[in-house]
Specification:
- The protein is α/β, with parallel strands linked by helices and 570 residues long.
- It is 39% helix and 17% strand.
- Strands 4-3-5-6-8-7 form a six-stranded parallel sheet, sandwiched between helices. A six-stranded parallel sheet has the order 16-15-17-18-20-19, sandwiched between helices.
- The structure holds adenosine-5'-diphosphate (ADP) and magnesium ion.
Length: 570
Amino acid sequence: EPASEEGELTDGFHLLIDALKLNGLNTIYNVPGIPITDLGRYAQAQGMRVISFRHEQHAGYAASVAGFLTKKPGVCMTVSAPGFLNGLTAVANATTNCWPMILISGSSEREIVDLAQGDYEEMDQLAIARPFCKAAYRLNHAEDIGIAVARAIRSAVSGRPGGVYLDIPGAMLGQVMKAAEGEKTLVKVIDPAPRTRPSEEAVARAIDVMKTAERPLIVIGKGAAYDQSDDVIRELVETTGYPFLPMSMAKGILPDTHPQCAAAARSLVLKESDCVIMMGARINWLLSHGKGKQWGEPGSKRFIQIDIDPEEMDSNVEIAAPLVGDVGSCARALLDGMKGTDIAPPKEWLDAVNSKATANMEKMSARLQNNNDPMDYHAALGVLKQAITDRPDTILVNEGANTLDMARSIINIHKPRHRIDVGTWGVMGIGMGAAIAAAVETGQQVLAVEGDSAFGFCGMEVETICRYNLPVCIVIFNNNGIYRGDGENWGGGDDPATTVFVKDARYDKMMEAFGGKGVWAKNPDELRQAVEEALSSGVPTLINAAIDPAAGKESGNIGNLNPSSVVAQA
Ligand code: ADP
Ligand code: MG
């Protein structure tokens, strides 16, 4: 450390690194450049894990997924203006998903920005960030770093988690302080996300609703996965005996093969249930806003909702019994309140759910064995389903349209937080960032199942995967297009949606370009062999799985969200 006559010195670079490390934030998802290049270098020299990406959006997605997996804010670091804006997409996505992350971005000189005098990458980033994140702060003085990092952490993880922006004008990093004084400014955050137990009355109200339920259901969401109270959730589900429906990223909190899992009877339970316990899941578009045909007769249900955010209640439908608190505390409070009361569901309901689920699973199972040439989604997914069953520690990342919809319902997940997907926005391009974060944060093998279109939004990050030699196997469902690969435009010629991509593109060669393994798999046997090899070796692998261009469906399962023209002129 540099010394002066008054003793050892520190500066903004080192205080920022010390503040992060003091709070257990040891990984930075980074894209270097002015003015944060040296910050990344010093961070690595001081023992932090610095993962440098090719594009900020994916570094940001990785940070947000790290937040989801660890309950600590993932840290992303970007350069000014365009780099910042690229990272901001991920902050907005993190906030939408209720995942904690901190975007630290360098910015240019305040004096020049404030007078709009035209600096290198000039932008008033703090003002721009505000509407896209949960909280945004600027650090003007090195002596404020400790408190600013503490605030950023607390904002990201307390209450409903979200994305936080920390603006770092380049000049601040160079500000010098005496090391001893600097150390005193650091803050270790105590109990950043305090557990909160719901009130007695709220619990009693919920139990009263449960007592009268004849066809109860528990819907488990990714807020429950985030909470990491897996044991209490399981105890609640098993003690009530209620069927449960996992939202996509809640799959695996209880295994999809659990006898109470109603995933294969989704339509039936949504329609017929009369009491629904929402557990860390919002009643948003993914659940048709709790209304419409899918939910049966209007007014036929009473909802109990567990959520950390009191404002979530009544967002779409009336909540008969709101339980505000963290999932673990609320589930425990329900278990305590249930003692000595009869809330057991009638046998007819459980039988109805089970027989529907069994019938649907049987129907599906035959399709997963088919050997159609060209390979269809079901044949390929049958192979991947078996791979995850054989290796349940593998973390599944999944995006695409048909690739997402079908993999979600076909591939069983056996462990909590082992499925990461497009989240609340249903956004494409999260795959490589999510895969990298999953591998980096957990050390587990990752299997990323990607539509060819979805992969296109993040594909360059295969270089990052190869460079860090991460145990990631990417399987691209290559049907030569978006949704399908065989469309013709209404005006004749190629369709700008479905036939946009080069036919039989060799994505596998991208992986080989960076030293990874590439495989072109044209049938289920080739796919099985390649996946088996990748998952057992941990070698970065990209399997280009040829899928029938005619097998997909426009917009997958959400084609109904497309507006249609009344005039329809070609
Ligand atoms: P899904 O997409 O799986 O249905 P959502 O993201 O819509 O899940 O909902 C997650 C909900 O969980 C959010 O409303 C959020 O406020 C809530 N939440 C997040 N963390 C916790 C927690 N620790 N305890 C309780 N609720 C939480
Ligand atoms: Mg496609």
